[in-house]
Design goal:
Strand order of the largest sheet: 5-4-3-6-7-8
Shape: globular
Radius of gyration: 21 Å
Number of domains: 2
Structural class: alpha/beta
Length: 219
């Protein structure tokens, strides 16, 4: 399954849970197509590849689809996630409850500032960085979110991987890459999200919707 298809399948899964929550029992390809921003033909093709079959006129059973896609996405027990860097973005993530329907729980935060980790008003416990290894093991954490300043991002990622974290979502303004691993080991998965860069691309596309700059060059 390529990354584009994985994104679509995840969107189908979320849409199905919303539809089940409002009491629907069946769904058609065009309903999921709208949620994923694709055509009904793409939905049917994806399901065909995954060997998921519905009825021509009856559509798909929502409960069955959720169960099948849940297995494909590896969803089972809730997945624990930690946040490293409890500034504004980190705090917003810790207060956000929208991850829970997808089986994702933010269970702890980490920060180097004693004022931050001594504050008991956070929705989840916040620990000093010195307890990272201990809590990653105790909470069975495989994924972390980094929201630290650029200067601390690489070192933070290194500490997370050394503690046993296998996946990192990086919000710091620097691109991180997995470090080399020993033969037979699986490298960490790192996704970099540069909010400023994403905004710049949106502004560029608004200015040049056809992808062509209006600047002229001399022959």
């Amino acid at each position: 399954m390529n990354s584009d298809m994985l994104i679509r399948i995840t969107r189908y899964y979320r849409a199905l849970n919303r539809l089940r929550a409002i009491g629907l029992e069946k769904v058609f390809a065009h309903n999921l197509a709208d949620a994923a921003g694709v055509s009904a033909a793409v939905v049917r093709k994806d399901f065909s590849i995954l060997e998921i079959h519905g009825q021509k006129r009856g559509g798909y059973e929502i409960t069955d689809l959720i169960e099948r896609i849940s297995k494909i996405l590896g969803k089972g027990d809730p997945q624990n996630v930690i946040v490293v860097g409890c500034g504004r973005i980190g705090k917003a993530l810790m207060h956000y409850s929208g991850f829970e329907p997808d089986g994702i729980r933010i269970v702890a935060g980490f920060d180097s500032d004693p004022i931050v980790y001594s504050d008991v008003s956070h929705p989840v416990p916040v620990y000093p960085m010195s307890r990272l290894d201990e809590m990653v093991e105790a909470l069975d954490v495989k994924v972390a979110i980094i929201t630290v300043p650029e200067s601390a991002a690489a070192d933070t990622a290194e500490k997370l991987m050394e503690a046993g974290v296998k996946g990192i979502l990086n919000f710091s303004p620097i691109t991180l890459k997995p470090h080399p691993v020993a033969a037979g080991d699986t490298p960490a998965v790192i996704h970099n999200i540069n909010i400023a860069l994403e905004l710049e691309q949106i502004f560029y596309q608004l200015q040049f919707p056809d992808g062509k700059s209006s600047k002229r060059t001399d022959p």
